[in-house]
Amino acid sequence: MFKFSSIKVNYLRLTNSSILILSACLLFVSCSNNNSLVAKRVDLLDRDLENIRNFQAEQTTEIASLRRELNMLRGNLEELQYKSQPRASASFNTPESPEIPAPEIPGSKPGFKITTPPPAIVPHEFVAKDIQLSTTIPGNNGELLRKAIEEIKVGSFSTATSKLEELRDLSYGVDWGAVVLFWLGVSAEGELQNSKAISYYHELVSSYPKHERTSTAMLRQGSVLIRERDPETARLIFQKL
Predict the structure, then answer these.
(1) pLDDT tens digits for range 213-240
(2) What is the DSSP letter of 108?
(3) Which of 17, 35, 163, 179: disulfide with 148, CB 3.0–4.6 Å?
(4) Binning pLDDT at 50, 70 and 90, where does residue 100 land?
(5) What residue spans of the chain are helical by DSSP H?
């Protein structure tokens, strides 16, 4: 009887131990499965986020391209309007009525002169702003910057580049140095020297990462890269905006 009881107790102990071991194994497997599921979900989330980033980059690229085309269309329209005005003026002075003057523009002053609009490549919104900025720059540097921007405004990119290159070293490290690099990039675009434009914009972004003109330089750099058939690099730049 004693032996039977002892065997029974040992059997129960063994059974309990087996149950504990089995439970521990099941718990470990369950945790492993849960960890595997969590890892898979994290991977799926990472892929979804990457897809969203790629989609946003593509949309940004398309928006930048559309803005570019819109600016070019606006510039072409302004140029057509300018070219059509002398013809309209001449049509009033026909041989039959040579003394009829051309109509005056309401509110215009004597000697009012129509000026040629800036080329489409020139960002009109920064011309007046940076000319005003040039008045705050001491010495001859401000005057040199103003003249360079005015040269760009009328499409004299080569002349503007020589002035801006002169300012480039003088403005290194100061806040308005970013403006000099920006207009160097615009001028290079105007001369169809896209590789130089990309280099100038890159220098601006690297040297002045927190400047207010940096984001615009990145947009223009990306647009130039698209024209150079490098959309992948453009996409990486747009992702940083």
Answers:
(1) 999 999 999 999 998 888 898 898 888 8
(2) P
(3) 163
(4) very low
(5) 2-92, 124-134, 140-153, 157-170, 177-190, 194-207, 214-227, 231-239
Domain spans of the chain, in order of start: 1-45, 124-239
Is the model's pLDDT at 77 over the cut of 50?
yes
Length of the chain: 241
Q: What is the CA radius of gyration of the chain?
A: 35
Euclidean distance between the first and final Cα of the chain, in Å?
86
pLDDT at 79 over 70: no
d(CA 134, CA 144): 8
Cβ contact 124:118 at 8 Å = yes
- In sequence order, the 6+-apart residues with CB closer than 8 A to the CB of 34 are none
Q: Kindly report the CATH number that applies to the domain delimited by 124-239.
A: 1.25.40.10
Among 209, 210, 205, 208, which Cα is nearest to 221's? 205
Give the per-residue pLDDT at 29. 56
Higher per-residue confidence, 39 vs 79:
39
Q: Are 187 and 220 in contact (CB under 8 A)?
A: no
Q: How far is it, in rounded angstroms, from Cα 68 to Cα 74?
A: 10
Can you tell me the distance from the alpha carbon of 152 to that of 154, in angstroms, rounded to the nearest whole number? 5
Q: Which residues contact 105 (CB under 8 A, 6 or more apart)?
A: 112
Q: Could you tell me how far CA 17 lies from the centroid of its own chain? A: 67
Q: Which two tokens stand for residue 203?
A: 């220098």
